[in-house]
């Protein structure tokens, strides 16, 4: 597998604030990577990291 987590986009941003909070709670057993609308995930041979647009 390329990554070992699930991306949760739009985290805590309108109009998805409540539903993304609910997903984080209900699926806490999964390895979730929440990102908001100003973030992205860079994946390379070394691993992954969240980056943010200023």
Describe it.
The structure is a single chain. The chain is α+β, with helices and mostly antiparallel strands. It has one domain. Helix content is 19%, strand content 33%. It contains one helix and four strands; from the N terminus they run βαβββ. The protein has one helix spanning 17-26, and strands spanning 6-8, 32-34, 39-44, 47-52. A two-stranded parallel ribbon has the order 1-2. β3 (39-44) and β4 form a beta hairpin. It is flat. The termini are far apart. The model has no long low-confidence stretch (mean pLDDT 94).
Spatial gap, N to C terminus? 30 Å
Instruction: Indicate the structural class.
Output: alpha+beta
Quaternary structure annotation: single chain
Report the sheet with the most strands, covering strand number, pairing sense and barrel closure: 2 strands, parallel
How much β-strand is present in the residues? Answer: 25-35%
Number of H/I helices: 1
What is the β-strand count? 4
Query: Please, what is the average pLDDT?
Result: 94
What sequence of helices (H) and strands (E) makes up the elements?
Answer: EHEEE
Low-confidence stretches: none
Radius of gyration: 12 Å
Shape: flat
Number of domains: 1
Strand arrangement across the biggest beta sheet: 1-2
Helix content: 10-25%
Protein name: Peptidase S51
InterPro entries: Class_I_gatase-like
């Amino acid at each position: 597998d390329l990554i070992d987590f699930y991306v949760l986009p739009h985290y805590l941003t309108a109009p998805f604030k409540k539903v993304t909070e609910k997903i984080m709670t209900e699926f806490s057993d999964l390895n979730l990577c929440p990102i908001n609308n100003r973030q992205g995930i860079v994946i390379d041979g070394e691993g992954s990291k969240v980056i943010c647009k200023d």
